[in-house]
Amino acid sequence: MDLAATPTKASFHSDTTAAPPSCPTCAPIDLGAPTVKPTFEACPVEACPVDVTRRVAVSRGPIHHTGTPNRFIQQVRITNISHETLDRTISLALDSLAPGVTALHPDDVTTCAQPAGSPVFDVEVRHLRPRQSAVVTILFSTAIQHPITYAPRVLATDDERRGGQDDHDKPRRVDP
Q: What are the residues facing 5 on neighbouring strands?
């Protein structure tokens, strides 16, 4: 932006080749700086997932040893107990995972849905209707025989977190 001076007060003036209107005998000031026109690009704003744990039932199956040292597997069933279809990507977050236990190959980790840093596993269904269930399989690793404990939390997120994939792009297991 260019500056021009008047005898009575400073003002901003866009035409540096003409005298300011309040002072027809004043000469414009050339600051020698290029004019900068700011441009703004729209930045995607990622919305925080919504906690829908109270709208679903979470049933954890038994934890089984896989036969590979230090590897365990568990299936978790998530059932929509509300009267409305959950029309977003549904994910299972494992909060307060026991020390020494790692959930392998999560789809993400929580960032703005507190507590942050919890592993997140997507449920491979886009529309979870009332009384419909979906199963998530979780693989755990633990170097020593720690009990595998966690607090399940179910989150709903827009599909943009998965890069806009539709639920038919990935294999899934859905039970009526």
A: 10
Distance CA 9, CA 22 (A): 10
Evaluate the CA torsion angle 98, 117, 123, 104 in order and state its sign: negative
H-run or E-run covering 174: strand 174-175
Task: Determine the Cα–Cα distance for residues 81 and 132; give it in Å rounded to an integer.
Answer: 8
According to DSSP, the residues that pair with 71 across neighbouring strands are 141
Helix (H) or strand (E) holding 79: strand 71-80
Cβ distance 159 to 44 under 8 Å?
A: no
Evaluate if residue 142 carries a pLDDT over 70.
yes
DSSP state, residue 94: E
Per-position DSSP letters for 99-166, written without gaps between them? TTEEEES-SEE-SSSSSTT-EEEE-S-S-B-TT-EEEEEEEEEESS------EEEEEEE-GGGGTT--
For 65, the 3-state DSSP assignment is strand
pTM of the complete model: 0.65
* pLDDT tens profile 93-110: 999 999 999 999 999 999
pLDDT of residue 150: 96
